[in-house]
Amino acid sequence: MVQTLEQTAARRRTRYAVIDCDIHTAPKKPEVLGKYMPERWRRHHEQFGGRGHAGAYYPRANLNAARTDSWPPNGGPPGSDLDFLREQLLDGWGMDYGIMTPLVGSGGQINLEYGAAHATATNEWQKAEWMDLEPRLRGSICVAYEDPELTVKEIERQAGDKRFVQVLLSARTAEPLGRRKYWPMYEAAVAHDLPVAFHFGGSGGGPITASGWPSFYYEDHCGMPATFEAQVTSYVFEGVFDRFPTLKIVLIEGGFGWVPALKWRLDRAYSKLRDEVPTLQRKPSEYVESHFWITTQPMEEPQNPEHFKRIVENIGEDKLMFATDYPHWDFDAPDQALPVRLPEEVERKIMAENARAFYKLA
Amino acid sequence: MATVDEIPPGGRKIVEVAGRSIGVFNVNGDFLALRNRCPHQGGPLCEGRVAGFVISDTPGVYRYSRPGEILRCPWHGWEFDMRTGQSWFDPKGVRVRQYEVAVAGASSLPPDARPAANPADMRAADEGDMAGLEKGPYVAETYEVTVEKQYVLVDVPS
Amino acid sequence: MTETVALRVDPKLTGGPVIDCDLHCNVPKIEALFPYLSDFWREYCTQSAFRGPVDTAYPKGHKTTARPGSGSPPGSSVDLLREQALDPWNVEIGILTCSYAIESIHNPDTAANLAAAVNDWMAAEWLDKEPRLRGTIVIPVQQPEMAAAEIERVAKDRRFVQVHMPARSSMLYGNRHFHPIYEAAARHDLVIQMHFGGAPGNPPTPSGWPSHYVEEYVGMGQVCESQIMNIIAEGVFDRFPTLRWVVAEAGWAWVPAWMWRMDKEWKGLRREIPWVRDAPSEYMRRHMRWTLQPVDPPDVIQFLRIVEEMGSDELLLFSTDWPHWQWDTPEEALPPDLPDELRRKIAYNNARAFYHRL
C-alpha cells in the first residue's frame, strides 16, 4: 500500500525526559497467554476464550483502535513486537521508562476463575516477554477485580516483583469502585505500597451510560469521563480514603479537564448533604487532591491556551503524568501534545518527574 | 522522484526531498503531493488511509463522494482534502503543505501546459450541499509536483 | 420545629425583574389528580392502591428536597410559592415543573393518562391561579407517539412553554425513537427541558448503583453529559434545527471541559456522524441553555471563568429551584459582584430570548 523510496527515520526529540505512563503491549496471538496458564485453563482458553459482557462493543476508528502506522513490520498486532516498540516509542522518543497497561480483559471475565488464571498469565507474560528483556519497561498487575479473594491472591503473588508498579483495573466495573466489595483489594494494595489504577474501558455488565447504550463509537470514546467522574465520586463518598489513608489511585486515559468542576460539585453537594455521609473526615476536594494521580492522555485541547493553564493549576503540577497511549489512534506525541508552553519545571514534572517520583523509578 | 509506473492510481510513494518527507499520490490519474507531517501533532500524515468524503444534513443519510481524495491522518484521523491540503473541519486555518505536481511525457512540457490541479473544495462536493459551512483551522502542507519523461518530480521551495 | 424567615432579596442583586426558569409544584397525593382522570383510571388507582410513582430523585425528609416551611407536602401551595419565591425575587415570569416520575410507570396507558392528568392539574391549580406562572408539559417519554399526542393536546394552551424530559432515561434522548417528541415540540416552539431526575430502572452510573443519594445527586451532571453527547452525535439539532434544549438543575460548571473534549474528538471521528457539520460546542451554544441552580463554582472568579470558557454569556438562565434548598442566602443563589450586563442576561434577558412562548 505505501511505497517508500527513502523513509526518514525521523527521531523526534523532546525538551525534557519522558516517562510514558500508558503503553498497551499486546500478545502476538491469544495462544501466547495460554502458554502461561496451567493446562486446565490453557484448554479452556483455547476452546472457549474470553467471555465478557456482550453488547458493549463499538467498531473502533481503526483496526485494534491503533494508529495505522503502528503495525509491526514483522507481523503481529500493534504493541506486540518489542523491537518495533523500541523503535517507534522507547528509542524513538528517548524515553526513560514506560509503564505497561495491557488491555487483555482479565478483569472483565464473567468466569471469575478463568479471569484469575488469565490475569496471572498476563502478569507472567509481562515479566517473561517484556520486563525481563527491556529494563525500561514496568508492569501493571492485572487481576480479576470482581472477585476480591482471587484478586488479593494475585496481588500477593506478584507484589514481590518491584517491576510491577500498580494494580490495574478497567474503569467500568460491576459496582462503583468505592463499594466495600473492592476493599480487600485496596487492603492488599496498600499493604504492598502499590497504587491502584483504573483505565479507560471495560464493561461492568450494564449500559455504558446512565441512560442506556449510545449509538456511536464517538460516544463510547468521548464519553469516558462520565465513567471516571462517577468512580471518583464513589471513592470519595464511600470513605475509602478514611479507611485506607495511604491508598493512591491513578486515573488512566480518562482525560483531566473535568476534574476541577467535579471537585467543586462534590464539595457543594457535600456541604448540603453531609448528613448522609457523616463519618467522612475531610472535604471531597481534599480527598481528590491527596489521593488521585492522573495521566495526561487524551490531552485536553481548549481553544484558549489560558484555559488549559487554569486546569493544570487547579489539579496541581505534581499530579499529572504524561502518557502516549501507544499504539492507539488517539496517541499523544511527547513533543507536541502539550497545547501550551508551561514553566519549565512544570513541564519537566508532567513529562517525567511526577511519574518518576510516584512510581519510584530511578 | 519516481516513475509514473511506480505510482499507479490509488498508489503512493513517500520520498525525502530537501530534508522533508513528502508523500506523492496518484489520485484518479492526478499526481498530488503533500508533506508527510500532520499539523496537529506531527504524525506521518502520508501513511494514513485514503478515503472518500462523507457528509450529511440529517441523521441516517450518508452522502458519499470523491472516493480516494481524502487523506486521513494515521494518528487522530483528521481528514485532509488531498487536492487542496485543507482540513475538513477548518479549511482555512488547518492545512497541510501542498506541492505542485504535473506529469509530462518524453519531452518537457512548457510550465503553463501542466494540467491544473482541481482543488474542488471538499465542502462543495455536493452542489449546494456545503453552502455556508464554517471553515476550519488546520491545513496540511502540499507541494507542486511535475512529471517529466514519465518521472514524477516534486517542486519543493527552499 | 423550623421557622420560616421571610426571604429578603436585595433588588440590586438581580437588577430588575427576573424570569425564574425552575420552580417546582408537587402532586400532594394521587387523589389530587382524580378530578382530571376518567372514571376507569380513578377506579384503577383506588383499587390497586397505586399511590403514584415512586422515585428517589428527592428524598422526602431532606432539606435539598424542600426547605423547611415550604408546605405540606413541599411545593403544594401557590401561596407559599408566591411568598417564598415569586414575590421576594420580583419574578415577572416563573416556569413551573412537576417531576412526577411518569417514566417509571411501565404500563404505557397509565403513564399517558397520569401525564395528562398532571398537565390538567397544573393548568387548573397553578397557572389559572397565578398569572406569573408558565407550565411544563409532562409526557410519557418512554412512549414517544403517545407523548407527541399529549404535546399536541396541551400545546394549545400557550401558557405551557416547555416539555419535561427527566435526565435519566432508559434510552439516550438522541435516539431516533424520540423524534416524534421533538417534531411536536419544534412545531409548537416548545423548549425541551431535560431536568434532574428520572427513574427508568437503569443503573445511574456506567458502573452500577452507587450507595448514596449524594452520589446520584452529583452524578446528574454526568447523566446530562452523556445525554448531551448523544443528542448532538445523533443529529437531533440537525434534524430539528429550531429545537431548543434546557438542562435544568444539574449544574453547568462541567460544560466547558465537555465542549473541549467533544470538539477534539469530533475532528477525528466525524465520519461516523457526518451530519454533525459544526463543532459540537457550536451546537451547544446555539441550541442549549442551563438553569442556574445549583451554582457549583465556589466564588465569583470561578463563576466568571466558566462563563468565559463556555464561550457565551447567553447560556445561563436564572432559577431559584424552589422549593429545593440549593442555597441559604440569595447571594449564594446569584453572586452579587457580577458585571451588570451579565447579571441582567442571567436574571432575565437570556430566558426572554430563548423561550419564544413566554
Describe this structure in words.
The complex is a heterotrimer of chains A (362), B (158) and C (358). Chain A has 362 residues and is an alpha/beta fold. Chain A is 38% helix and 11% strand. Chain A contains 13 helices and nine strands. Mean pLDDT of chain A is 94; it is low at 1-10. Chain B is mostly beta strands. In chain B, a hairpin with a 6-residue loop joins strand 6 and strand 7. The relative contact order of chain B is 0.23. Chain C has one domain (11-354): Metal-dependent hydrolases (TIM Barrel, Alpha-Beta Barrel). In chain C, strand 2 (91-97), helix 4 and strand 3 form a beta-alpha-beta unit. Chain C has 358 residues and is an alpha/beta fold. Chain C is built from 13 helices and eight strands. Chains A and C meet through helix 7, helix 8, helix 10 and helix 12 of A and helix 7, helix 9 and helix 11 of C.
Average pLDDT level of chain A: 94
Q: Provide the CATH superfamily of chain A.
A: Metal-dependent hydrolases
Using DSSP, what is the number of strands of chain A? Answer: 9
Low-confidence runs of chain C: none
Provide the CATH top-level class of chain C. Alpha Beta
Largest sheet of chain C: 8 strands, parallel
Estimate the strand proportion of chain C. Answer: 5-15%
Instruction: Give the CATH topology of chain C.
Output: TIM Barrel
Radius of gyration of chain A, in Å, reads 20 Å
Q: How many strand units of chain C?
A: 8
Largest interface: A-C, 68 and 69 residues
Our count of domains of chain C comes out at 1
Low-confidence stretches of chain A: 1-10
The helix/strand order of chain A is EEHHHEHEHEHEHHHEHHEHEH
Quaternary structure annotation = heterotrimer
Tell me the β content of chain A: 5-15%
- The proportion of residues forming helix of chain C, as a percent range, comes to 25-40%
Q: How would you write the strand order of the largest sheet of chain A?
A: 2-3-4-5-6-7-8-9
List the total number of helices of chain A: 13
Q: Determine the CATH superfamily of chain C.
A: Metal-dependent hydrolases
Instruction: Report the end-to-end length of chain C measured between terminal Cα atoms.
Output: 39 Å
